[in-house]
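User: Some background: our group keeps a shared notebook of sequences we're curious about, and every so often someone picks one and asks for a predicted structure to add to the entry. Today it's my turn. The entry only has the sequence so far, pasted here. Could you supply the structure so I can complete it?
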Amino acid sequence: MKKNPFSEEMSSELEMARHEFECEKAKLLGDISSLQEENYQLKINVQIEKSKTEKVQKEAEITRKDLRDLHLENKKLRGTIRNSGLGKSSTE
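Assistant: Of course. Here's the predicted structure to add to the notebook entry:
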């Protein structure tokens, strides 16, 4: 039986194409794995930043409440001073 040179050539080309495909597939799987890891890290970073933002927002709200309380206290003290006559100078 005589060997078909075209069959051997096609088989060789097919094997080269299969090898190239497998190499590209391995590369893409590595890229996907890297992207998944990066995505995971970014999600962690987002959660950390959200947590920090929430903490700062809570602190800001506490500070606003404290400032409001101080403002009201100051207003009351000014009224008390005015009503008691402590704020007047001796020439008045």
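Suggested note for the entry: DSSP finds one helix and no strands in the chain. The CA atoms of residues 53 and 59 lie 10 Å apart.
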